Amino acid sequence: MSQPSEQIFLTTVHDVRPLATILGGVSFCSNATISISKAGLTVSVEEARTLVARAYIPFSLFDEYKYNPDPHEAQSSQDADAEGEVITTFTIPLDTLLECLNIFGTGSSSLSQASFESRKRKKWKQDSDESDEDKGRRGKSRKGGPPKGNATIDQYFWSNNEKKTGMRMSYSGLGHPLTLILAEEAAGPTTTCELQTMGDDFLMDLPFEDARRVIKVILRSSWLRDALSELDPSCDKLTFVGIPPAGAQPGDTGERQTATRKPTLRLSAEGTFGSTQMDYPNDRDVLETFECATMVKFTYRVAHISCALRALQASLKTSLRIDDEGLLSLQFVMAGGPGAFLEFRCLPMEEP
Question: What is the pTM of this model?
Fold first, then answer.
């Protein structure tokens, strides 16, 4: 197959761990559809025509990001959005991509909230302890470092002593593989991985209209993660219940407004050996935001909700929304990089 003169997509990053962490949050399916645009990457997966998960990775997460599609080239892998921007889509084996990112053992998707905050504190400490003279020497040293550009991957290792995997990713269009060049250090070996690309899968669209929202909750991811992790393995149903504050529902007047009932998010799980109930009080230390005007109760399969555990492990905050038909939207602010987030949308179980 003849190779084109240049790739339509090229990106580089000096540390693949934030990327691997974000991708790991939606890695409950073997294949994923990647959409490339000027704004960044969108990685989408689907489970049982009921659950759709997407990872939104902004271009700012990468050290270099170039996307130059040929608008005159008729490709089934390219489409245009509502604003006329050309978007390139294809499907790859997501599990294989994650294995490639960790090929040196230093690209594991294990960047948790705690480790992310630790890295930030360490960086701030180093910057604050550095004298003006040291900063000057460091600036001169950088000026004498490798030249800017995308010819080699060496430039992503010379300024860091910590071992990490750097990556150069490229895609040349329909019929070509997604090519990864990975290296752990400038003087060390490099590995080239080529992932076969396929036509984009038709993924189910689950639009969420905020105007139809009946409950919205924002809380720390750890609160929800701990609750889901403690569910009995025999549980197959999980019910989300929203209890509005007194006076919020129609007919709540007089003494009912002064009742002790507090707005609460309740999780109720049912299984073979019994049931479990967990309540989240309307406390700012627990629920950052709680908006619920009427009683809400919808049930989902535990197997689908549990797919979000990896995203909960690596995220900082979670936004939970449900519309009037029970469509659940879980949005996760990721610790891997600013502007990156995941979204899970799940249909409820049908009432018998």
Answer: 0.80
